[in-house]
Amino acid sequence: MGERFIFTKHRTVCYHCHEEADQVIKAVSSQAQVVCANCGATRIFLPRVEEVGAEGAYTPISCYEVWHLEPTAPCKNCGVEGPHDLIVGCNQFTTRCHNCGYTHFYKFNLEYIGQCPIEEEEV
Ligand SMILES: [Zn+2]
Ligand SMILES: [Zn+2]
């Protein structure tokens, strides 16, 4: 994979298999995905906006539990590797660099069951 950005996990009850399992979260500029490590349920998010934004500019309106995580990731805007806000709701996925405020906003695109590494999405 050419670009390294968000790669983290969140352990919670899976919406699909209803087991407590790691939800593997990956994001690059072109796509974000959340994959259940237990059943392979995958949600794909596609980028909509990339900009330096104010905190809370993309507060999710969600139909169920919103995950608010804080992974360390390299920012493509300021180049600092540091904490990012990572907010995952049922229909959106937002990351924001703590250092410069650079925000990636992704919108839910599709879901499927099965393994499809994000590496294969590269052209
Ligand atoms: Zn699952
Ligand atoms: Zn930054």
Explain what you see.
The protein is an all-beta fold. It has one domain (6-121). It has no helices and 9 strands. The chain has strands spanning 6-13, 20-28, 31-36, 41-52, 67-69, 72-74, 81-88, 92-97, 102-113. Strands 1, 2, 3, 4, 5, 6, 7, 8 and 9 form a 9-stranded antiparallel β-sheet that branches. The protein starts with 5 loop residues before the first strand and ends in a 10-residue tail after the last strand. It binds zinc ion (2 copies). Residues 14, 16-17, 19, 21, 36, 38-39, 41 line the site of one zinc ion.
Summarize the structure.
The protein contains no helices and nine strands.
Helix content: under 10%
Largest beta-sheet details: 9 strands, antiparallel
Q: How many strand segments?
A: 9
Low-confidence stretches: none
Mean pLDDT metric: 87
Helix/strand/pairing category: mainly beta
The run of helices and strands is EEEEEEEEE
Number of helices: 0
Q: What is bound: which ligands?
A: zinc ion
End-to-end CA span: 11 Å
